[in-house]
């Protein structure tokens, strides 16, 4: 429906606004940022990581040194909107990077070495 499309568009735009993001992903080739509330709502792993007495809660930084920025952007768009933009996948493939793959219900591979349940 048009209302759903407008909602997805608004979330998609929000994903790229850096004004009030409070989590930093330290990645292989740079940084990406996200909202703690969105990550906690989307993933039990992030909820625990950002709520317990863990380094990530204290610093707001999640280190994923094996993950490329383009791959993380695909993942974040999926978390924020429930959709994937084809241009993100194409960009990751052209760069020779592994795009996230859904392996089983609730599990997304962000790199060949790490799985994260969302």
UniProtKB/TrEMBL annotation:
Any Pfam family hit: BTB
Annotated segments matching region Disordered: 89-118
InterPro entries according to UniProt: AtSIBP1-like (IPR044714), BTB/POZ_dom (IPR000210), SKP1/BTB/POZ_sf (IPR011333)
PROSITE patterns documented for this protein: BTB
Residues of the BTB domain: 21-88
Polar residues compositional bias, start-end: 108-118
Family annotation (PANTHER family): BTB DOMAIN-CONTAINING PROTEIN (PTHR46672:SF8), OS08G0495500 PROTEIN-RELATED (PTHR46672)
Protein name: BTB domain-containing protein
